[in-house]
Amino acid sequence: MPRQMNFSELHWLLAVVQSIDVGIVVLDLECRVQVWNSFMENRSGVASKQAIDRSFFELFPEVEKPWFTRKVGRVVALGTPAFTIWKQRPYLVHFKNYQPITGQGEFMYQNTTLLPLRSANSEIDHVCLVIYDLTDVAINSLALQKANNQMQQLSRTDHLTQLYNRGHWEQRLQFEYAHHDNAIALLMLDIDHFKSINDRYGHQAGDAVIKCLSQLIHQHLRDSDVAGRYGGEEFAIVLPRTDLGGARTLAERLRQSVQNQQVLHNGQTIAFTISLGIACLDHTARDHRCLIERADQALYASKRAGRNRVSTYAA
Fold first, then answer.
1. Catalytic residues
2. Domain map of the chain by residue range?
3. In angstroms, rounded to a whole number, what is the distance separating the alpha carbons of residues 22 and 11?
4. Where does the secretion signal sit in this chain (predicted)?
5. Cβ atoms within 10 A of the Cβ of 45, count?
6. pTM of the full predicted structure?
7. Residues 308/193, Cβ–Cβ less than 8 Å
């Protein structure tokens, strides 16, 4: 026969519930509050005597009533706990985030547990909601994730141009080649007489010209396009789902935009042009490197023909 809890033990249990650093709310089957500990008082600003017998949804109108009611119903029906974690649902109720780190969310990040509470006759007449403050854990995890994302971005981005580096855009080209259902075009371009720009104006001026070109490339890209630096003053743009006509239209627009642009550096105005070459998957290709070779050949055809022009690969 189970030992009956005496009054002193009940008093200890109530003291633990009041002092524990988690939110404890006991709800009846209509989600009216029956127990409201000091954590809930301090975070909500609602005293226990004001919360008792009030609807949980009246106290927290931000809670999705249909979702929470279903969750309580499953706990009662199955007699097993239910959980939410902050990564899936950052918070259940709106408690202010008082952490010293700013800019990490207005509300406290929370994990929650719903526990079935059996009465003396083994019926489940109440559920206990436990709210854990996971703000420190969440903020550290989000900061680490942000740092990892930044490191990943740095590892695939060219520092000077903020375009993708060769390793990344070539990897994307290889992916598009392997999975293409429609046309793919590759656009190669470089700055005409770039060595003369460096010799005449200096290498910092050359860097300014490269940055200017990279910004113009950014402005002409679609969301699906992938632009990167091939090396030195040479660039590549992967154009998924693009035929020769579409690639040529983009190339001409970019060429004219560069021709009309001037770079101001140390009081000097620098005009420059670019030459471009296009290759498409309208010829048999053994792998994605064939596109690079063909676009490169088309680029040098533009160079030989006088520069500041667009050429396409011809088999």
1. 233
2. 7-142, 157-312
3. 19
4. none
5. 10
6. 0.56
7. no
Distance CA 79, CA 98 (A): 35
The vertex-234 CA angle with 230 and 235, nearest 5°, equals 60
CATH 3.40.30.10 assigned to domain 157-312? The reply is: no
Q: Which two tokens mark 30?
A: 């209509």
Enclosing H/E stretch for 217: helix 203-220
Spatial separation of the C-alpha atoms in residues 37 and 22, rounded to whole Å: 9
- Torsion, Cα 245 247 252 254, to 10 degrees, reads 160
Q: Is the pLDDT of residue 99 over 70?
A: no
d(CA 117, CA 72): 11
Which helix or strand (DSSP H or E) is residue 234 part of? Answer: strand 234-240
- In CATH, the number for domain 7-142 is 3.30.450.20
Higher pLDDT, 97 or 276: 276
Across the range 122-149, mean pLDDT stands at 86
Output b/e per residue, 179-209; b: 16+ Cβ within 10 A: eeeebbbbbbbbbbebeebbeebeeebbebb
The C-alpha atoms of residue 277 and residue 200 are separated, in whole angstroms, by 27
d(CA 81, CA 237): 53
Output the pLDDT for position 115: 94
Contact 109, 86 (CB under 8 A): yes
| Contact status, residue 184 vs residue 238, Cβ threshold 8 Å | yes
Burial environment of residue 243 by CB neighbours within 10 A (0 to 12, 13 to 18, 19 or more): middle
Which of 221, 145, 234, 154 has the alpha carbon at shortest distance from 191? 234
* pLDDT of the residue at 189: 96
Give pLDDT tens digits for 14-46: 666 676 889 999 999 999 999 999 999 999 999
Amino acid identity of residue 58, one-letter, is: E
Whether the CB-CB separation of 276 and 260 falls below 8 Å is answered with no
What pLDDT shows up at residue 1? 42
